[in-house]
Specification:
Distance between the termini: 29 Å
Strand order of the largest sheet: 2-1-4-3
Helix content: 10-25%
Shape: elongated
Radius of gyration: 16 Å
Number of helices: 1
Structural class: mainly beta
Order of helices and strands: EEHEE
Strand content: over 45%
Largest sheet: 4 strands, antiparallel
Length: about 90
């Protein structure tokens, strides 16, 4: 008897977030760029990162990694967030 094992395939999106200062000097991260399938995340531009991650999590996306932005050897205020989910059957 031969058993076939299927491994999951994943789709990924990249979300870029940068720090923005509020009026009282507080800072929060705001989504500035979303790279991925055309139907994912385009409505998340300019929303707080925590709100964007919650919305994506509700759609089955999970955080796979965080890549800090480094420019000329220095950390800049922001990061790329890598999210993944199992590919949807077509």
């Amino acid at each position: 008897m031969h058993t076939t094992v299927q491994h999951p395939t994943w789709e990924y999106i990249l979300v870029r977030a940068e720090y923005v200062e509020r009026m009282r000097g507080e800072q929060f991260q705001r989504v500035t760029v979303v790279h991925g399938p055309d139907d994912v995340g385009q409505e998340l531009h300019d929303v707080p990162l925590s709100q964007a991650l919650a919305a994506l999590g509700a759609e089955g996306w999970e955080l796979a990694g965080i890549d800090p932005v480094i420019k000329e050897g220095l950390h800049t205020p922001g990061a790329w967030y890598v999210l993944k989910r199992q590919s949807q059957p077509t």
